[in-house]
Design a protein that fits this description.
The chain has a single domain, classed as Rossmann fold (3-Layer(aba) Sandwich). 41% of the residues lie in helices and 26% in strands. Strands 1, 2, 3, 4, 5, 6, 7, 10, 11 and 12 form a ten-stranded mixed β-sheet that branches. The protein has a two-stranded antiparallel ribbon with strand order 8-9. Helix 1 crosses helix 9 and helix 9 packs antiparallel against helix 10. The longest helix has 17 residues.
Length: 322
């Protein structure tokens, strides 16, 4: 990662893979510690089973499984990261290979992934390029831990959640992190009325998103997920906020977080550039001023999100007694 810099020049081109890499440090400090510790404890109960099968939906470039390895939640597992974009899936395999070599693992390539070995630790990681929902509907009761990181708010939750939970083995765990929950803030304000209008319309684009002619998204996924889980036959173990908060310190953003902010604004720009309810010149000027705030190390960005962890019934006896 590059050192902190106030000179976050507005990019001429954008890379989604670089965005995913840049947001890793934002995610690291945003993930809810109580929810994470609850997941760690639940995995400790199952630690004696070296054959645990982990599945992540929408795995991107592999930053979540890298986080599991770095924080040493388990000493071995089989992991499948389901990613619809082949370029990202390939990037993930290369990234984890490089991570393994850097941390002293022997690295063996697989057709769609890598095996990392170090003493008694063995991690078999694969990154098949596939549609997550199609996989979920085929792979019933195959996962000991199902993860979805900053992903569920891209789905139609009422139709997708039953398929996702159906992937869990009895007693299996789910960890759904960074579920957007309806609040975005850019500070300082430029024009309070215009700021409110832009963010309201941006959230509405999430609610109106269609993929293949079907609804796919929800700007309040976090709260709706909690209610939906309460209505299913699973046990919710913990939930908590995981807000993104990016603040410049002495006019600088850490690591590559200036790029992360530019990409967020680029996403808002793409979503609203031709929106009939916005004056195009005022909106273009607003976007320019926000990018300039990043370049000067002034912009503060906040997004409200929720993390949840739970298990499919039945849970192991030791976990019930804890």
């Amino acid at each position: 990662m590059p050192p902190p810099s106030a000179a976050g020049q507005t990019p001429r081109r954008y890379s989604f893979a670089r965005y995913l890499s840049a947001k890793a440090t934002v995610d690291d400090r945003s993930l809810n510690a109580h929810v994470w510790d609850t997941l760690r404890h639940a995995l400790d109960v199952r630690r004696q089973d070296a054959g645990l099968k982990l599945v992540e939906l929408g795995s991107g470039i592999g930053t979540m499984v890298e986080r599991l390895l770095t924080r040493r939640l388990l000493s071995g597992f089989t992991y499948r990261g389901i990613e619809a974009q082949p370029r990202l899936a390939n990037h993930a395999a290369r990234r984890l290979s490089a991570w393994g070599r850097k941390h002293g693992y022997s690295v063996t390539g697989l057709p769609d992934g890598v095996v990392l070995r170090r003493e008694a630790e063995v991690f078999r990681l694969s990154f098949p390029a596939a549609d997550a929902l199609q996989v979920a509907r085929r792979k019933r009761q195959t996962a000991d831990l199902l993860m979805a990181h900053a992903f569920l708010d891209l789905l139609d939750l009422p139709t997708a959640l039953p398929a996702l939970l159906g992937m869990l083995r009895p007693g299996g765990l789910f960890y759904f992190s960074l579920n957007f929950d309806g609040v975005t803030a850019f500070e300082p304000l430029i024009d309070p009325a215009l700021d409110d209008e832009i963010l309201s319309l941006y959230h509405r684009t999430m609610d109106e998103r269609l993929v293949g002619g079907r609804r796919s998204g929800d700007s309040r996924t976090g709260r709706h997920l909690l209610a939906a889980l309460q209505a299913t036959d699973v046990q919710l173990l913990a939930a908590g906020a995981s807000d993104w908060v990016v603040v410049p310190v002495k006019g600088a953003y850490p690591d590559d977080e200036a790029y992360f902010l530019h990409f967020i604004l680029h996403t808002v720009d793409r979503a609203l550039r031709r929106h009939p309810e916005l004056d195009p010149r005022r909106f273009a000027r607003w976007v320019e001023r926000r990018h300039a705030q990043i370049e000067r190390g002034e912009l503060v960005y906040i997004a409200h999100q929720l993390d949840v962890v739970g298990s499919a019934h039945p849970t192991p006896d030791k976990e019930r007694r804890s």
